[in-house]
Fold this protein.
Amino acid sequence: MSMEKEQVFKTCPMCGKDWRCRESFLDDPELNFNGYQPDFSAIEHGIFYFTHEISVCGSTMALKAETFLPLFQGRKYRENKQLSEECTKKCLNQQDLDRCPAHCMFAFVREVSQIIKDRSHRVN
């Protein structure tokens, strides 16, 4: 008898709710996308923060950026403009999820943030 465990994208560490895929996670109205922390040594190791906003939980979960980076298919810049004159320093503020106008290799992560925000705020 095979007891294979069903694949789960993410499990809430506090209440145990499972999301089976990235899409069901992003479409869940009980989740609040509330931050991004970059890793300037490797873009894919940055962290996106989500809070499970139900009365019996309230847990904040951290997921590696690499999980969400494929959502963006647009232009990506190769140069790191961090702390240059062009830098808006948005990456240094975890709660600032707005677009960045700099032509920087980290700017596309801001676009991923917008995709997540737009998805999580849509009305079904």
About this structure: Residues 10-120 form one domain. The chain has one domain: 10-120. DSSP finds two helices and five strands in the chain. The longest helix spans residues 107-120.
